[in-house]
Amino acid sequence: MRMALRFVLPLLLLLGLLSWAAAPFVGDLIERWFRADVEMRSRLVFHSIQETVVGLVEAKADRKIVQLFERITLDERVLALALCLPDGRLADASKSWPRDYRCPGEDRPGPSFGVEHLPSGSVLSAVFPLVSAEGETLGRLVVLHDLRFIERRSSSAEAYLAGFLALLALGAAVVTVLVARLTLRGWVRAVRRGVIEPAGTLDGTDHPPEVAPLIREMRQMLRDLETPRAISEATRIAWGPDSLRGLLRDELPGAEVLVVSNREPYIHNRDGDGIVLQRPASGLVTALEPVMRACGGTWIAHGSGSADPDTVDRDDHVAVPPDAPCYTLRRVWLSEEEQNGYYYGFANEGMWPLCHIVFVRPVFRAEDWDQYVAVNRKFADAVIAEARTPDPVVLVQDYHFALLPRMVRDRLPEATIITFWHIPWPNPEVFGICPWRKQILDGLLGSSILGFHTQFHCLNFLDSADRFLESRIDREHSAVRSGGHTTLVRPYPISIEWPPAALAGVAAVEECRAQTFARHGLAPSVRLAVGVERFDYTKGIADRFRAVETLLDSHPDWIGRLTLLQVAAPTRGRLAAYRDTQAEAEAAAERVNARFGTAEWQPILLVARHHEPEEVLALFRAADLCLVSSLHDGMNLVAKEFVAARDDGDGVLILSTFAGASRELREALIVNPYDVVAMAEAIHRGLSMPVEQRRDRMRLMREMVAENTIYFWAARMLLDAARLRKRRAIERNFAAVSQRRAPRSEPPRR
Ligand code: G6P
């Protein structure tokens, strides 16, 4: 309507002006035409009666002249006729001759015409000299014509003209609006198709040529938004809590941040009559906790501590960190049955070995799967309950919640869901073992962005989606399109806080070394290697014990001079595979110690208990060498923490080639943990390495971790999320415009 008015009003105005300006000319023109016509009629009248009148005048038949005049004035246009004598007197006239109208005074040789304005209206007087056959002037014949009809006609003509022009304006406006609307609708559809649905080609065949350049430009713009340019931009900033907060404020204004993970960042446990706070041994928690401290928001996690229910409010909220609260922990309670099925069963006996490929057979049970589905739904409900806006940024963590992204997407279609998979993603052959592979893939593809530690895992995921799901894989942009929704699949190598907050509470290197040596009764001449992990079969703990054994066999000069202090936090102890891992490692340590140990010296010290972050950092600072021999690991943050702990610039890192960290920490001694001989050699090499080389390597690794901190990890994901939200906003605008134009077009896409 607005568009129609925009066309019609100016057109009407223009044509109104035109008709106003043209009307006098038209009236004048019409008057002149009709006057010429009337003059011609007078001549006709004169010529047709001239002879008769001359005859009658000569015969002095005045009555007949009047009768003749009366007959002629029957014609409605001829008002009156009169015969004027040469001296100007009126001789004979029709009855209609205006009483006060006198004969024209001048005696002209030829006919003359003039317009007179009588009280009754305008008349044309046509005066013709009346001459006898002999050439004698008998008088003048005066024909009066009524000119009022001309005025009437000219004003009707003006009215018709104005009406016609108005109609013309209206018609032209309607046609213009129709053509414009149809063209616009076609363009909007074409642009929308070309921009939103990447299936369209731009070779000019299926788009109007007028919009093809626009589509091309917009596609480029959207592609730019998708390109991981965030990396290059983000590297220019030294990311920290402040810049991350700034990013949220500027790029995601008003966005609500919700994190979902199984493991909670703070566990309250009962200890006698009191409550103790524990920070779990979890790479995920180590990484995400500083981000949450910077961003604020709500972290939804399983309340697993024995005193957790006693420390929450009635909404199951607790403000954390307890000493300086800056975000909310929302605890979700799980029954024994749920924990057994979802956590121990499907997540840790199914998905964990499936993804890690360390030759521990994954176990898939239907009842575990049912619990996994139910618990994912329970956490999705918690997300919906916590969300205060329709479009929160939801950061979903890890293999415990593969179904949750889709569940949240269905209920909060506008949410930006970033799922990060903290463990490896296997190749399609291995992934295909899972009986619920389709549901897992579909669940994850509810995410806006799906992140892995390495490009290799991203490719494995794309291959799996390609193999098992109805989907379109866009390898150029690393995206999967399925069910009308696109998920970007991106590598975001996770990292740690720099410097780790816990380092502030840790003593100087020398002091740490002295304390550790004293605590474990180590002689000052002993070189100390450390290993810190959960007691997990993926960590290759027994393998590194075997490597130490091999080293002592092949380089016996290390006997009595090297101790491996292995700290291992018991984990997932309800599962046989974990109990076996611990038993196997303990047996291996015992065997090596029995073979080489003495009363004063043990080659392996195994401490199977949880250590708080400060203790771990102190251990790293005390050591000559850190051993990370994971058989398979998404990233492995222990390696990065060791590097971060060494602000003295010393220390050697031996790192498994199967840990994601080996892609970044290239100055570590990279080893194949399945090859104990090579690992033993690496330990030997590490312990024998000249100090300059140790320092050079450590410096490069520290630079790497200092640049690629956990804030950088979060910033890259949030920058990509911000770009995505901008892209969606553009798409929504298109959808809204085209829906307004074509009410029956498709619903807007997410
Ligand atoms: C890995 C997983 C995390 C998990 C952590 C500890 O790092 O990726 O999701 O939290 O191990 O395992 P747990 O089962 O004790 O949480």
Automatic annotation (TrEMBL):
**Regions that span the bilayer:** 159-184
CDD domains from the xrefs? GT20_TPS
Question: What does the UniProt keyword field contain?
Answer: Membrane, Transmembrane, Transmembrane helix
Pfam families linked to this entry: Glyco_transf_20 (PF00982)
Q: Which domain of life is it from?
A: Bacteria
Q: Which family does it belong to?
A: Belongs to the glycosyltransferase 20 family.
Q: What is this protein called?
A: Trehalose-6-phosphate synthase
Origin species: Phaeospirillum tilakii
